[in-house]
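Please describe our next protein:
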Amino acid sequence: MTHVPRLPASAILVTTLAVLFVSCGTPPGQPRAGSIALAPDDVVEFDALYASNCAGCHGVNGRGGAAIALANPVYLAIVDKGSMRAVIADGVRGTSMPAFAQRAGGTLKEKQIDAIVSGMESRWSDPGVAYANPPSYAATSAGDIHRGEAVYQTFCQSCHGTDGRGGPKGSAITNDSFLALASDQYLRTIVIAGRPDLGAPDWRGYLAERRMSDQEVTDVVSWLASHRVAAPGQPYVTER
């Protein structure tokens, strides 16, 4: 009879573990690759960042909601990357747009803000479309309220009413509560880029025969802004 040597228990244990490691690929008790969820401030994937930070106001896939549509090639053509990034990072004081950068009290790292800006540009802009002499994103001159009223009557009153308090095709845009939440830049952006989600045209579509000029945009924004009041939403004056 052939004698078969018996392995010590320690050798058997080592051999068994080696087989387990090879067969499983992951040591016991260790998570598999890709099974650990990223910490919120490490997420840099655009869809996840947009859904959790932007969609609530700007709509699913940037199609608009309480705030403007970001998936608007006209808007993305006129706004410069620095301005767009600054709005996301620092918010707009006195409006419903909060600051998202951690340094400004928000929750996003700088790399996450960069991912949102880059994602909007790569997915929703249309670099193949050129716009002839569009108004500038930011005003480059002072506006005139009196000229602005005439501009409003020419380009806007047919939809928003003669006094801006609403018409058959458009909402009230001299409403004090609306203006309290809308910065001058927001008003300018809407006038230029429109609200395609609401059927509102951009600066080229108000009149069939001509487009709004840069100065006309500036003037009508001044007229709209002149309707802001110190205590918006108050139906009466409190007497003392």
Summary: The CA atoms of residues 78 and 137 lie 5 Å apart. Confidence is low (pLDDT under 50) at residues 17-23. Residues 145-225 form a domain with the Cytochrome Bc1 Complex; Chain D, domain 2 fold (CATH 1.10.760.10). The radius of gyration is 29 Å.
